[in-house]
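For reproducibility, we list the full input for the zinc ion complex.
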Amino acid sequence: MSSVASRSGSREQVQRADFGRVSVFFGEKNGKYPDANQVLVRGSDTRAALDAPIVSNYIGAEFDATELVIMGHIHEDHMAGLHRLPDVPVHVHEADLEAARSWEGLLAAFGTTDQTRVSEMLARFTRDFFYTPQPGARGYVDGASWDLGQVQIRAFHMPGHTAGHCVLLVEPEGVAFIGDIDLTGFGPYYGDASSSLSDFRRSLARLPDIPAKVWITAHHRGVYTDRARFMQDLAAYAAKLDEREQRLLEMLNESPKTLVQLVEQRLLYPPGFDGPWVIDAETRTISQHLAELVADGRVQLREGVYRSR
Ligand SMILES: [Zn+2]
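The corresponding predicted structure, in tokenized form, follows.
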């Protein structure tokens, strides 16, 4: 089921796996960020790409023949091949549409608060991801479907990572592209302004209901063909939410703290870990867990100080 295509412009080779009319091209380091895995679907009428990560620039004619792009969600690492397809329609869930259409929309979805970072981010995205906004992107909604000829794609809105994050199911092959519900050891990421912890929880609970036989993550894990192993990794991934909540409670058990103090200690990343987005992501992640804990009475908030009960 696995064969090798040559990586044009370099001696490295892009690994691939084929499932009927669906092909997966693995990004570098199995699609670890900044790369990701590319899914292509060959209908008898239309050829579609699901996302367009960095690896799409090394596939060659098979990617460049794409006639329709369906985005599972909008982040820079999933858009890196769109510059190769300037006249091809790009479909995006309506909740991620503004993020696709303009740089300002993408910044708003990230929730970037530090204006001094904006030009540096744009330069990095342009250099590393060939970033091009998609002003002509078209919106789709939950349940949208595309008939490519002898193969159909159906969108399941599974928000949380971003507001418009979707799982794309290819039928009759039963291949589900689950995007950045990536089942990595890091756990779920919901640190953007457009992210939602509570939506992520609901999406993780609904994911097993999708009638798939093969699951493909955008990053790292790659392909699952065994439902038991998929369910096991999904459970471990979902358990990360409880682990984070538990660690937060332990920090508050040590002593009452403000949000700023909790962010200083880090929840997502190791203590002392830094990057231009880290404070914003930690603040939003911790805030969402605190809101849940305050709502169910396990944590008390008084005058800006959180304490466990
Ligand atoms: Zn993402």
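Confidence is low (pLDDT under 50) at residues 1-9. DSSP finds nine helices and 16 strands in the chain. Both points were considered when choosing residues for closer inspection.
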